[in-house]
Q: What sequence folds into this?
């Protein structure tokens, strides 16, 4: 059940992160610790990707759920190497080349950006922060700054677009 996937390649783990249900995520974690090998925990939970290449980490950033992201971070620190944390979470990309940093910027989620920044400072070199996080681009060549601007414009149009029709 825990390792089964839906038609989008998502596990119960992904869905719990998507729904922001920390109680279920905690229960799944406890079950996994009792029943899975460390390798399965790493590859089938923490680093497992859906059909878009998104881990639960990406999904928590999409949903803007800092509590879930914090839990995932703590579990990752216990079970992943520093290289895996850096390359698969902090700098990890989905099939579009999008990182959690890009996602949080696009959605204007300053709380998630702040957490990601703190964790990046703890784990990444200044050069990687600059070149891979701040200036890193997705497959369309957009940095987090570009995505933040697009997200801000989208939010503006969603909130005020109908008023613009009268102008």
A:
């Amino acid at each position: 059940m825990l390792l089964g996937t839906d038609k989008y390649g998502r596990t119960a783990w992904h869905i719990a992160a998507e729904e922001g249900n920390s109680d279920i995520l905690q229960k799944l974690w406890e079950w996994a610790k009792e029943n899975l090998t460390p390798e399965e925990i790493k590859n089938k939970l923490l680093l497992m990707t859906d059909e878009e290449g998104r881990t639960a980490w990406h999904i928590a950033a999409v949903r803007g759920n800092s509590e879930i992201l914090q839990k995932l971070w703590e579990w990752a620190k216990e079970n992943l190497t520093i290289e895996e944390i850096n390359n698969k979470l902090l700098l990890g990309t989905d099939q579009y080349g999008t990182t959690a940093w890009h996602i949080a910027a696009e959605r204007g989620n300053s709380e998630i950006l702040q957490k990601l920044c703190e964790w990046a400072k703890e784990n990444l070199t200044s050069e990687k922060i600059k070149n891979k996080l701040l200036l890193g681009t997705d497959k369309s060549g957009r940095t987090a700054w570009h995505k933040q601007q697009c997200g801000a414009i989208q939010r503006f149009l969603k909130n005020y677009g109908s008023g613009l029709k009268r102008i």
About this structure: The CA atoms of residues 3 and 145 lie 36 Å apart. The longest helix spans residues 144-164. The chain has one domain: 12-164. Confidence is low (pLDDT under 50) at residues 163-167.
